[in-house]
């Protein structure tokens, strides 16, 4: 009987020989992790046994790479994976940790009930707290702030974070709020923006988070992007990057010239409506952008030559300038989600 598939999808994996980062189709089984060069491959390129393994997340061994986690096997072999965004990393980490725990206890992997379990008063669920902070109505308001002739888009100040934690009754006082905010920062739920907040993170202070109106921070999957640990890279964003991110993840994209398919990380923004695509191995700048205003997006059953395609879950974007883009999702559900999200953005964005 084949092991149960718990989770699968694209992740970027660091090679064990040449140390290069490449996108892989990764499958989490009850007893291990298989990774494939392509989703359609029949044989995995490698297998990581989970029995006796340990997981580290967040893994901060690579300064400029976000959303990385590490699996260390009993033979002390390290395997590094990078997700496309924070929630995706956390979902993989939760399932891998549970799979390891089930192996240790001789149990079968099973999803928990969606009902809330009773939490101890002193227990802080940073993941749940992060989602509350991002709530569009009751969460922390993202602002465009200016300092030292720079504009920081979609960010907020350190004292606003502490104010929110106290007013939301997540903490009893500002000192306790500072400890929680520091934990959120250390776990990657918050990122520093600007010289002051970055200096605090890089320094040896007890609390790397600053309860200060001049210290700026941002959510890692918001509309604000900058190169970490470099104060010269907090620049004014172009108009097309000012939109709020409504969806992101990896898809296969067909090239316009060679017609070959490659994995790309896509970030969908609305108002203005753009779909940017990146090298998932970690490039900071997008490889290209699709302006979605007035576009048409539909599922397709044939490729650009009009012949029946062997690939599944294809969809096409036709821009207002009549440029055609062919993309492939990992499942019918994922394809439907992308099509709906793009349709909404194309109607509401600039």
From TrEMBL:
Please name the InterPro entries in this protein's record. Answer: DEP_dom, PH-like_dom_sf, PH_domain, Pleckstrin, PLEK_DEP, WH-like_DNA-bd_sf, WH_DNA-bd_sf
Q: Which GO terms describe its cellular component?
A: cytoplasm; ruffle membrane
The UniProt record lists the DEP domain at 136-221
Region forming the signal peptide: none
Q: Which CDD domains does this entry report, sorted A to Z?
A: DEP_PLEK1, PH1_Pleckstrin_2, PH2_Pleckstrin_2
Q: What residue intervals traverse the membrane?
A: none
Q: In the record, what terms sit under GO molecular function?
A: phosphatase activator activity; phosphatidylinositol-3,4-bisphosphate binding; protein homodimerization activity; protein kinase C binding
Q: Which biological process terms from the Gene Ontology are attached to this UniProt entry? A: cortical actin cytoskeleton organization; hematopoietic progenitor cell differentiation; inositol phosphate metabolic process; integrin-mediated signaling pathway; intracellular signal transduction; negative regulation of inositol phosphate biosynthetic process; negative regulation of thrombin-activated receptor signaling pathway; phospholipase C-activating G protein-coupled receptor signaling pathway
Which domain of life does this protein belong to? Answer: Eukaryota
Q: Which residues form the PH domain?
A: 4-101, 244-347
Which UniProt keywords are given for this protein, alphabetically ordered? Acetylation, Phosphoprotein, Repeat
User: What's the stated role of this polypeptide?
Assistant: Major protein kinase C substrate of platelets.
Q: Cross-referenced PANTHER family, in alphabetical order?
A: PLECKSTRIN
Name of the molecule in the record: Pleckstrin
User: From which organism does this entry originate?
Assistant: Cercocebus atys
Q: Which gene encodes it?
A: PLEK
